[in-house]
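Z., the sequence and structure:
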Amino acid sequence: MIYIDGAHDFEVVFKDYKLCYENLCRGGVLVLDDASLYCDYNPASFAFAGHPGPSRVAREYADKEMEFIGAVGHNNVYRKK
């Protein structure tokens, strides 16, 4: 399992994602933090859905390359196919 939580700029998150994806074993789990901004997650008043950078990586890359397992708040969980 790899948990990506760091910078929120698209370019940095994308580099983190690609490095982690390449090194994750088939069937491995990847958690992308702060990545629910562009999905149907409706956070409570004390929470937030995420940041644009990680959320964009989730939509443009992780959703297409991996199996979406589910989300816990602003954390999206994927399994490598």
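The chain is about 35% helix and 25% strand. The chain has a mean pLDDT of 94.

Let me know what you think.
H.
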